[in-house]
Amino acid sequence: MYQDLSVFTGNAHPDLALSITRYLDISLGQCEVFQFSNENIFVRICENVRQRDIFLVQPMVSPVNTRLMELLIMIDAFKRASAGRITAVVPYYAYGRSDKKDQPRVPITARLVANLIETAGADRLVTVDLHAGQIQGFFNIPVDELTALYNIAGYFKRKNLENLVVVATDIGASKRARNVAQSLNAPLAIIEKRRLGNDDHGQVLNVIGEVEGKRALIVDDEIDTGDTTVSSAQALEERGVIEVYAACTHAILSGPAITRLQESNIRELVVTDTVPLPAEKQIPIITVLSLAPLIGEAIRRIHTGQSVGELFHEVENEVGNFVQVGRQSPGQ
Predict the structure, then answer these.
(1) Catalytic annotation present for 100
(2) pTM here?
(3) What domains appear along the chain, each with residue ranges and CATH number?
(4) Which of these is catalytic: 159, 193, 214, 281?
């Protein structure tokens, strides 16, 4: 059995790390992570970690490549400091879309990132809602993939929306949306679209399923530029949907995403805190669900040798914890 449980963080999302340690009722580990003027990253662990069970909380958020390098260097530092076990807690796994060769002469970057994390010295990975399930197989170390879907479904159960249909943004997202639909006892519809090149733009071709006169909940793993979500919401409105809600695990919200959402017909967007939401992105329609209890409980179970899978049977029957950002959405 490993000795004391310790949680450390880089610069990606210290607020989430603090919330996790509050759940675990422990102090956040002391560690310096900064850049020199030449952009070289330096890490110094400020306490003894010999034979401790170490969890490093570091989602790969903007600037993605800097946060990834911070994680790798932190893993190496703890390995050299004789940590007992090192678990990389990566709530958002960047490069997840590059999970296969879908064009000639392109990399499989999700596999490369997995190799880097292993080579750096991580013994285990904890993550949340990977873009593609097969990414788990890119690792030769144990991977615990948590999901925010039960938290999202619990939130909308609490809203008790009538005549609801859950909508997948494409065929690939249909399994994720189907699970939410089952939790909410709602039918499923699917957006048929075509991806145009590598510029994050997709063309909506059709809506598969009965949506007219219903309230729609669009479900996806992440929202990046917002193009897919907003165009899907518009297509649903054109097909007679009376209200549109949206939900995702990872609120990347890059580029024109906030402007698109503000100008859209989406009544409420429900996200989680796997990535930080800076003040300029905290618009009134966004609600943030905290995953700190979920991640914290997973960490506790890993440390004590309990089942992580059983955790979801408990979460499924509970309403997800949430924190409202901005004003209450209309109609709540």
Answers:
(1) no
(2) 0.92
(3) 5-146 (3.40.50.2020), 149-289 (3.40.50.2020)
(4) 193
